[in-house]
User: Fold this.
Amino acid sequence: MAVLFSRIKGMFFLLFLPCFCFGQPAPPLLRFSIFLDPSNMVYLRWDHDEQEMMLFELQVHTTGWVAFGFSPHGELPGSDIVIGGVFPNGSIYFSVS
Assistant:
């Protein structure tokens, strides 16, 4: 699933949640990656195209939810935040604020 952020022109975010389904398409080839924490539990991959469209993949070992944000100055006020996860019954939620 992809969400267009209203305040960040041309930026897309992909949240990949665990899915044990057969016949799923292969994930996109993303050239850049980094672990965001010292325990290697938060892994970010990204890439961009000629039109400066950015694609992100976030892989997280979590207890059921994850949040990811973008800010022009690295601060919470004015940032775009994506929150997603899995409810105990297995249904998935995804929210952008």
Remarks:
- The CA atoms of residues 84 and 94 lie 4 Å apart.
- Confidence is low (pLDDT under 50) at residues 1-21.
- Residues 32-72+79-96 form one domain.
- The longest strand covers residues 42-48.
